[in-house]
Amino acid sequence: MSRHGGSIVLARNSVNLNQIKVMLRIRPSSKKERGNPSSKNVFEIIDEESVVFDPNENNDLLAMYSKKRQPKNLQFSYDHIFGPETTTDEIYDQSIRDVINHLQDGYNCTIFAYGGTGAGKTFTMLGTPVHPGLTALLAEELYSTLMEDGIGVEIICSYLEIYNENVHDLLSDIHPPKALQLLEDGSSVVVSDLSWFRPSNAEELMSILRTGNLRRSQLPTDTNKESSRSHAIFQVAVSLKRRFGTFCSKLCLVDLAGSDRASLHTDMRRRVEGANINKSLLALGSCIDALADGLQHVPFRNSKLTRLLKNSLDGNCRTIMIANVSPSSLAYDDTFSTLKYAARVKYIKNSVKKNLVSARNASVSARDLEAAKVEIALLQMEIESLRVENRDLKTTVKEHVCVAPEFRDRLQSCSPVNEPDDDDDLPFTTRNKIYSDPGCRSSLQSSGSVFEEPGMSLEKPRPRSESSYEIPRTREPLSRRSTETLEIDSPKSTFREHTDVIPEFRDYSQSWLAEPKQQRSVIVPIVHVQERQVYRDPNPNTERRQSLTKLQRAANQIDSKTETKIDENQNRIFIWIALLVASFCFLMLFTSILVQRWVVSGAKHENPEFDGFVQIGIYTGKKSFNVGQGWNTTDFQIGELVLMEGRENSLNADNLWGTVITMYTCIILEVSAIILAIPVLFCPAELILGLRGLSVVNFLCFLANVATLICWMCAYFNAFQYNVLPQAELNDKWSSIGQAYFGFSFWSLIFESTVRLLLAIALLFKSIGKPFNKRPALGDNTISSTSA
Ligand SMILES: Nc1ncnc2c1ncn2[C@@H]1O[C@H](COP(=O)(O)OP(=O)(O)OP(=O)(O)O)[C@@H](O)[C@H]1O
Predict the structure, then answer these.
(1) Minimum-distance ligand 1 atom for the alpha carbon of 218
(2) Which of 123, 256, 265 most suits a substitution to test ligand 1, by most atoms within 8 Å of the C-beta?
(3) How far is the centre of ligand 1, averaged over its atoms, from the C-alpha of 124 (Å)?
(4) Taking all residues of the chain, what is their mean pLDDT, rounded to a whole number?
(5) Which of 281, 366, 427, 779 is the most buried (most CB within 10 A)?
(6) Does 774 fall in a domain?
């Protein structure tokens, strides 16, 4: 019972969540109202939930008998009454803050401000820079609360107005604004071609809102110099991914246009505007009446406003109505009308449900559809942003280029039109998995490790063996890049993991990009990465982790050995030179043997007119004497020299045998040096013999040469210096004592030995730090299965 006798309680308070929450906000008197003597306060606030409209004045008796209009003296109760002193912040704290929790729980929410023109709707919803409205406060808290979750939160927004019964997109740049269509979609209405934005923070959301406000139709009225001539609906869709599903909720913030008295306007445009505003508000009133009376038919289709607010009034939505009123009697009719509206709204019941899109429960219902619509809007946003990202990437790709055949091939292989032909031949599922990974390209691009240049010929890797492929070596200038084989046991690892884990890949891409563009095509790869399926661990996580650990270890080993790897191209040239030098040396040795002029000894006669000499080889010798009748030449066997009698120092057999043995050793080693150098040319050095092996062989050649030379020097000093002529010629007054000197064969061998020694040193020098003959065993630079 009211303390005001005769007043009627038109609204009752309720805590039912399905009911629309109705709040009354009485704004402070404006300057104009305060300055008007006929203006008086029409409210008496009883408590937080009750207010008396047009209360009886104290001099009741006088009023009763005077001709003055009788005060209505009506008491209204709402969920909350906010007096003129209450700030928007306080309203937010007391009644609006819960909206964030509802959104988080997956409930749709609508807050709409209702009231006559100049009653304070826009002030409440949007506010001013000094007094932020509910939208700003909600936006701030929405981001600060939801973004704490981090991953799985998406917020998008749209802003539209209904002006003269046309729906305009306030965020569209099209001018004049295009009238958008409303499409019936089951129980709800969708605005076609409405643009949605994804603000990343509250400030961005507010700037979107401000942009929309600038485009909103406004005109000054008698009551309000910035009167909104359209109904504005700002929508914020929220998607929250939770473990058990995705909550999709939507917040609608509605700032209705104030009712207008068309008769006050002479301007035709203003009259039409006013008529349309009133028409839509009337339609809203009819709907509220029908809903409050529980009628079967609610005339939502009578206006665009009611069609759009249908779900907020009659559907799955938690709705808050803020009835804005002026305290002044100057807005008496508007205020009374608003109070009645608000009181009727209290009787409307909604059916509020959570919008949970569950993977398990896929039954299609109205609320699922509602959630799906929000989801669709979010996905459309995502598509749009991906389009932009794709365009940016295409631009970036023109400046960055795929850095290695392996990378490029993989990128190529990601494309369905460019599947590698030999993919099926790959022995391991690992490789097939990588090649067929459709996310490969995007993951590579987003990793920032790999780039692709359109127009560049993409060559395939040259498999070294059926389970290996090529990747570029790093830390070498591109022009000197060589081939190496890297074995990595990575049965389940993706290519992305390769690029992430092996620093060489990244280094390569960086060095590649650092080179001038015209030089980039000179790519001589190659490191071979051999993927071997080693693990049979059924637990993919363990396997993956082990694989990554192994990759990391392999990468470290590559790092430490990079400096010691052989540049194959350089090696080939070097080995070619070594082979030519070795062949030349062998030629010298062969010529030495062929010429058989190791020692040449003069033969003097007592008669100085006579002349002669003896050429001494390994097996044979030749004597030439000129006794005045021309030269007389005879061959002889070296054996004869050994067995020769009458010599002061005979040429002993040891020297001869030593020469024969060392000479044969020379021949064998030199031939083998040539033979061994040939395969090294055509296979990786480490795999066959290695440079150091060749160096050793050449050094042995040198030693054999030296041994031969020593034999000859011994023979020279022991025998040839004294006498190489038989007794008969001695008797004929011939003598060779002290006249021997080294011949062509000896000097040729000395020259060859020197060259051979230099070659051996060069090979040794070149092979420093390289494996001796074979590449290291598999376990040395790969990770064997046991190492895990
Ligand atoms: N609670 C308040 N405190 C201070 N000033 C207020 C308050 N409410 C409204 N005003 C002021 O009253 C004027 C009219 O307010 P507002 O524009 O919000 O009205 P409205 O209901 O949106 O009007 P219309 O429907 O014509 O657009 C503005 O100058 C605004 O600053």
Answers:
(1) 27
(2) 123
(3) 8
(4) 70
(5) 281
(6) no
Residue ranges for the known binding site are 115-122
Same domain membership, residue 579 and residue 561: no
Distance CA 269, CA 277 (A): 12
Domain identity same for 62 and 82: yes
Task: Indicate the range of 3-17, 360-374, 587-601 predicted with least confidence.
Answer: 3-17
Looking at the structure, tell me whether residues 632 and 513 fall in a common domain.
no
pLDDT of residue 249: 86
Q: Detail the residues annotated as belonging to a binding site for ATP.
A: 115-122
What residues line ligand 1, using a CB cutoff of 6 Å?
27-28, 30, 115, 117-123, 221, 224, 226-228, 257-258, 324
pLDDT exceeds cutoff 50 at 522: no
Task: Evaluate whether 320 touches 23 at the Cβ level (below 8 Å).
Answer: yes
286 and 413 inside one domain: no
Ligand 1 atom with the smallest distance to the CA of 324 is 21
Q: How far is the CA of 325 from the centre of ligand 1 (A)?
A: 10
Report the relative pairing of strands 50-53 and 468-471 from DSSP bridges.
Answer: unpaired
pLDDT at 776: 36
Check pLDDT > 70 for residue 146. yes
CA of 305 to the centre of ligand 1 (A): 21
The string of DSSP letters for 141-165 reads HHHHHHGGG-TTEEEEEEEEEEETT
pTM: 0.48
Query: Residue 672 — very low, low, confident or very high, per pLDDT cuts 50/70/90?
Result: confident
Please check the confidence at residue 62 and state whether its pLDDT lies above 60: no
Pick the range with the lowest mean pLDDT from 52-61, 318-327, 759-768.
52-61
Sign of CA dihedral 216, 218, 224, 225: positive
| 82 to 78, 135, 758: CA distances (angstroms) | 10, 18, 104
The pLDDT tens digits for 708-725 are: 888 888 888 877 877 788
Mean of pLDDT values over 571-582: 81
pLDDT per residue over 456-492, tens digit each? 322 333 344 444 444 444 434 433 444 343 344 443 3
Question: Do residues 404 and 458 both lie within one domain?
Answer: yes
pLDDT score of 272: 79
**Cα–Cα distance measured from residue 291 to residue 345, given in angstroms and rounded to the nearest whole number:** 8
Q: 783 CA to middle of ligand 1, Å?
A: 75
Query: Residue of the nearest CA to atom 14 in ligand 1?
Result: 118
Q: Is 308 within the bounds of a domain?
A: yes
Residues 633, 558 within the same domain: no
Q: Ligand 1, closest atom to CA 115?
A: 21
Among protein residues, the one whose CA lies closest to atom 26 of ligand 1: 227
Position 678 scores a pLDDT of 74
Pocket probe for ligand 1: among 87, 122, 321, 337, the residue whose CB has the most ligand atoms within 8 Å is 122
Q: Could you tell me if residue 393 is inside a domain?
A: no
C-alpha distances (whole Å) from 22 to each of 79, 220, 280 are: 6, 28, 20
- Cα-to-centroid distance, 31 and ligand 1 (Å): 12
Which ranges of 362-439 does DSSP label H, i.e. alpha helix? 366-399, 405-414, 429-436
Determine the structural domain holding residue 759 and report its residue range: 573-769
| For residue 431, pLDDT beyond 50 | no
* % the chain with pLDDT above 90: 8
DSSP assignment string, 224-247: -TTEE-SEEEEEEEEEEEETTEEE
CA 17 to chain centre: 46
In a domain, 182, yes or no: yes
Q: Is the pLDDT of residue 88 over 90?
A: yes
**Best mutation site among 92, 124, 224, 264 for ligand 1, i.e. most ligand atoms within 8 A of its Cβ?**
224
Q: Whose CA is nearest to atom 10 of ligand 1?
A: 120
User: Which amino acid type is present at position 216?
Assistant: R
Q: Where are the alpha helices (DSSP H) in 562-690?
A: 568-595, 638-643, 653-682, 685-688
